[in-house]
Amino acid sequence: MNKYVAAIDQGTTSTRFIVFDHGGNVVAVDQKEHEQIFPKPGWVEHDALEIWERVQEVMAGALSQGGISASEIAAIGVTNQRETIVLWDKNTGKPVYNAIVWQDTRTDVICAKLARSGGQDRFRRKTGLPLATYFSGPKIKWILDNVKGAKEKAQKGELLFGNIDTWLIWNLTGEHVTDVTNASRTLLMNLKTLDWDDEILKVMGIPRKMLPRIKSSSEVYGYVGNARGGVPAAEDGGWSQSLQGIPVSGDLGDQQAALFGQTCFSAGEAKNTYGTGCFMLMNTGEKPVHSKAGLLTTLGYKIGNQKAVYALEGSIAITGALIQWLRDNLGIIEKSSDIESLARTVEDNGGVYFVPAFSGLFAPYWKSDARGVIVGLTRYVNKGHIARAALEATAYQACEVLDAMEADSGVKLTALKVDGGMVFNELLMQFQSDILNVPVVRPKVAETTALGAAYAAGLAVGFWKNTDELKANWGRDKEWTPKMDVKRREGLYSGWKKAVTRTFDWVE
């Protein structure tokens, strides 16, 4: 009897396997971190084989902790850190290089070269994206240009490319596929045709045969245990013996999965996810809206044969990662959750602003030559002020993105649905509501990224009939309303804007 749907949530710092019931409630979860590799300044890598191992471990772990048998699972969905790329040998299943992570900036020279003809927006009409180190295409080009033998293998059809979703689905089922949301983050997919764009592939020197087939976000892609690089998956430590034959039928990039999990199915509905970075998406309906304010035009989701739904997105590179940095690099807190109590030791930010442009500025600036700054320091300032400024940085960055979204879409947001690890930080959520001047709403199930992937997988196999059933599952857990007066809000925000300008043009 199929009682549950499960999701693999493969994130930037860890991997989780979460099992949900029909009401969208979490029944079991297991989570494991993986190594962050920093070979040079600005370079960020992961070991794709380690990630695949973690996936197998958390799948086994969640089932065992929940006392769940595989026969109770109707389908599995996949959601993933987007723009992080893997290139692997089709015959051996071994990556030819570490996964290059979305935060990595090594492709700045490639992007600058490509921008010489047509500028940073050279491919924007087609892809909805500016030329930036963030996206997958230039990273593929970097591996083909810099890893010995990679280009030759790719031309012979022996090398496969995928964002992490594709890598995992290939290992689970033997199928080389991706969905429209992940494909829309590569800088290689045409928003109108929902297919790879031959002109861009030619410019970047990327052979089409190495790319996965683009599918919808909700359909059966394959079944667990069919193949893994020529090795039956069931031989991998027996983890999939029990899961053999379960359909893998949902695939969404993490931010689109959160949009779906938050049931933002109507144009004008928006969500913000607070994770390593921060990502705000607004559903814009069945037509792409081209941004004039530095936002990305992206795919929201596509259910089976239905029309694709588009979204506007504002991506902020560093939010939760800033708290980890204060913990790991500066040691001013022992664990990430200590940040709130430290920030509460002071009344305000003491005049300090912290702009965490560690890997450049993302939306709405798109300046890869920016770097992080702390401004407004005096002898009065202590670590409480730094902690508070770090939390406030997240809220200010979200506010800039929302301003841009409202300008592009012409829709005034009435409330913001929020999810991700940082939404349990009461101080941050209240400040976010104050600075946006709209209510901020946290849903009952905060695991909306994994939930979105589970929903897509469940819809594909009839576990849920339609999106109305999903909407009925959504429930409010807590709401924060604005309490700050206008003058103070405007003063703080203009101070932030000034601080941001101090990060520009740092790298020459």
Structure, explained:
- The protein has helices at residues 48-66, 108-115, 124-127, 136-146, 150-156, 164-173, 180-183, 198-204, 254-261, 320-330, 338-343, 383-409, 426-436, 448-460, 467-473, 486-501; strands at 4-10, 14-20, 26-33, 45-46, 73-80, 85-89, 99-100, 159-163, 177-179, 189-190, 195-196, 213-215, 218-223, 247-253, 270-274, 278-285, 296-301, 309-316, 353-355, 373-375, 416-419, 440-443, 476-480.
- The protein has a seven-stranded mixed beta sheet. A six-stranded mixed beta sheet has the order 3-2-1-5-14-13, with helices on both faces. Strands 4-7 form a two-stranded antiparallel ribbon.
- 33% of the residues lie in helices and 22% in strands.
- The chain is of the alpha+beta class and 508 residues long.
- The longest helix is centred in the C-terminal third of the chain and has 27 residues, at 383-409.
- Please compute the radius of gyration using only Cα atoms: 22 Å
Supply the helix-strand structural class. alpha+beta
End-to-end C-alpha gap:
61 Å
Q: How helix-rich are the residues, as a percent range?
A: 25-40%
β-strand amount: 15-25%
Q: How many E strands? A: 23
Major beta sheet, specifics?
A: 7 strands, mixed
Shape: globular
Count the helices. How many?
A: 16
Main sheet strand line-up: 17-18-16-15-21-22-23
Average pLDDT over all residues: 92
Q: In terms of per-residue confidence, which ranges show pLDDT below 50 for 5 or more consecutive residues?
A: 229-237
